[in-house]
Amino acid sequence: MGSASADAVVACPLCGDSSGASWRETTGIYRHCASCDLVSRDPATWLDAVAERAYYGTHDNRVDDPGYRRFLAQLAGPLMVRLAPGAHGLDYGCGAAPALATMLSEAGFPTVGYDPFFAPDEMPLAARYDFVTCTEVLEHMHAPLRDLACIDAMLVTGGLLGLMTELRPAMAGFARWHYHRDPTHVGFHSEASLRWIARRFGWEQVGMDRRVSLWRKSR
Questions:
Q1: I want to staple 155 with a disulfide (CB 3.0 to 4.6 A). Which of 47, 111, 112, 159 is the partner?
Q2: For 67, left (φ over 0), alpha (ψ -120 to 50), or beta?
Q3: CB neighbours of residue 120 within 10 Å
Q4: pLDDT for 176-190, tens place per residue?
Q5: Element (H, E) at 199
Q6: Using one digit for the tens of pLDDT, what is the confidence trace for 36-73?
């Protein structure tokens, strides 16, 4: 980690706690929450909506790209083996190329997409689903508790949530980690922060590795 910063304390965007140390890296100012273990980027350095959308537009993600599909299969594979035939789902933050929703639908699990920039119709958010996926989105959430509450409300009891985000290394390795070099990444999760979220919403852990975690809504 870099040197400590004297900047004003900013509340954690996940749990709202104001304890924890802040420090400065070459990529920005960060804060490690002592309560939920989230590391967050200082909101004063977040991109505005126009710049954020423009940055996403530089991504070359295509529905028919075999490499992109293999990447998404890290979540789709373990999720699908746990779904009942014909289960319906939503991909939250599907992006400009809704590849995961397409893959799941092709496999017999009808899936719709929502994205605040590229598929902003909020009508799907009013429905309830057997599963929700959220791939490489958690790290972009400016208001994670609000977004996660929306996801939780869409899941039926017993429904599955598939999250994909690269888990943060030990704090001593944060400076060398590539993930915070993306200026649209504002929240950096650990197993502990994901478990904090699970306790908050009553999710039971089904599986977890360094990038993919699966959760079942228990209430």
A1: 159
A2: alpha
A3: 8
A4: 999 999 999 999 999
A5: helix 191-201
A6: 999 999 999 999 999 999 999 888 889 999 999 999 99
The per-residue pLDDT for 8 is: 61
Would the pTM of this model clear 0.85, i.e. be above it?
A: yes
Dump the DSSP string for 100-136.
HHHHHHHTT--EEEEBTTTB---GGGGS-EEEEEEES
Contact 162, 134 (CB under 8 A): yes
Amino acid at 9: V
Q: In angstroms, what CA-CA distances link 46 with 25, 40, 92?
A: 15, 11, 21
CA–CA gap between residue 200 and residue 202 (Å, rounded) = 6
Instruction: Provide the CA 34 distance to its chain's centre, in angstroms.
Output: 20
Detail the DSSP E strand segments found in the chain. Answer: 22-25, 28-32, 39-41, 89-92, 111-114, 129-135, 155-164, 187-188, 203-208, 212-217
Residues 6 or more apart whose CB falls under 8 angstroms from that of 2 comprise 23, 24, 25, 26, 175
- What is the dihedral angle through the alpha carbons of 95, 100, 104, 109, rounded to the nearest 10 degrees? -30
End-to-end CA distance of the chain: 39
55 in helix, strand or coil? helix
Q: 172: which DSSP letter?
A: G
